[in-house]
Amino acid sequence: MASHGVARTARIRTEEQRLQDLEKIKKYRHLEDQIRALAASGTYGPDVLELTTRLLRLNPEYYTIWNVRRRCLICCLSSSGATGQPSSGSREQSPDTKDQGSDSDALQSEIAFTTPLLMEFPKCYWIWNYRQWILSQAILRLPVPAAREIWDTELGLVSKMLTKDQRNYHAWGYRRLVVARLESSELNGKSMAEDEFAYTTKMIRQSLSNFSAWHNRSQLIPQVLDQRGADDKARAAFLVEELNLVRDGLNVGPEDQSLWYYHQFLVSQIVGGGNGRSVAPALTVGEKAAYLRREIDEIRDLLEDYDDIKWIYEALSEYTLALGQLEQRAAEGNDDEAGDVQAWLTKLRDLDPMRTSRWNDVEQQAR
Q1: Which of 364, 301, 291, 307 is nearest to 331 (CA)?
Q2: Which molecular-function annotations from GO does this UniProt entry contain (predicted)?
Q3: Which of 234, 245, 328 lies closest to 282, judged by CA?
């Protein structure tokens, strides 16, 4: 058996190693039993917190223990915040400065505890969830400047993690959450759409296969255009820039599925209904058809060097049919187009036989 290209090998243990493993299991279960017994009795103090530290370092996937740790921390925190979120002004002028200082130390300690775990287990949901909860406590319990500093630092950490693993979708999702909080009124924030859009450009330049960066980019576009106050001309120019960007990528990596997904997104902005969330909602039918024909011609050129990549044939088939619908005609009305679509679908059946039924459905749509 193999997993992600790495062959599994049988582990041969000596008797001494087996006994050592049994001893580790015994200690682990004893630690678990201690925590469960104390939690069942309603005991949530520093001693229990220390026990959870030991267990979570052994097994950070143990979600129940993270919940016990939450309760321990709540018992240790001093300032108000458990009953609700005070306003920004009241937090800035709160008299319990000593309590807030103590809470800040406790929260920073928890952040420090989870950081090495996150580095070692970057795709463990429970560490991300707990860390998010810790940061939310900073908003509830600390003055705005102190809370914002913690969240700013968190954004820096996520950037470092994405430098280490550029396509970690956990980190990308967490980054969106952190940015949303930094933009919120809770932290006296303002829009970071332009900065985040530039960040996606940077990450895409480093790796064209970064699906999460392309996805983030697509989500940011409406906000970026609105904040720029882009008129119809500026929106059309923006669309051309984005098409050129992804097409440059396709010219060197047409086998990359991430690029095709983003290209499909842009094409959907061209042929879709003229709603306000479209990149360029004011395009006329003639302009849309011209854009689509240009993309089809550019993709056709890829066939000269790449004749065995299914994404090319799929895009050509879909875009040609979309062009026919846009011009309110069937592909059959144009013998050349009809022949091309049939040839592309035949090639798709050869390259991707597992989806033959899908290609048959596309063929029906072409009629």
Answers
A1: 364
A2: Rab geranylgeranyltransferase activity
A3: 234
Backbone angles phi, psi at 2, to 5 degrees: -135, 145
What is this structure's pTM?
0.83
> Which residue from 272, 294, 298, 293 is spatially nearest to 283, judged by alpha carbons?
272
CA dist., res. 296 & res. 110, Å (int): 54
Sign of CA dihedral 329, 332, 336, 337: positive
Cα 367 to Cα 332: distance, rounded to the nearest angstrom: 6
Q: Which is it for strands 6-7 and 2-3: parallel, antiparallel or unpaired?
A: antiparallel
Q: Dihedral sign for Cα 324, 328, 331, 334, please.
A: negative
Q: Which residues have a Cβ under 8 Å from the Cβ of 47 and sit 6 or more positions away?
A: 38
pLDDT of residue 338: 86
pLDDT at 106 (0 to 100): 92
CA atoms within 13 A on the CB side of 131: 29
Q: Are the C-beta atoms of 106 and 76 separated by less than 8 Å?
A: yes
Q: Is 263 exposed, middle or buried (0-12, 13-18, 19+ CB in 10 A)?
A: buried
Tokens of 209: 């296969």
Angle, CA 27 vertex, CA 24 and CA 29 arms, to 5°: 110
Q: Within the chain, where are the H helices?
A: 15-40, 46-58, 63-76, 88-92, 97-120, 125-141, 144-164, 169-183, 193-206, 211-228, 232-252, 257-271, 285-302, 310-326, 335-351, 356-365
Q: In the chain, which stretches have pLDDT less than 70? A: 1-8, 10, 78-100, 273-276, 329-335
Say how far apart CA 314 and CA 311 lie, in whole Å: 5
Beta bridge partners, 2, equal: 7
* Cα–Cα distance measured from residue 143 to residue 175, given in angstroms and rounded to the nearest whole number: 23
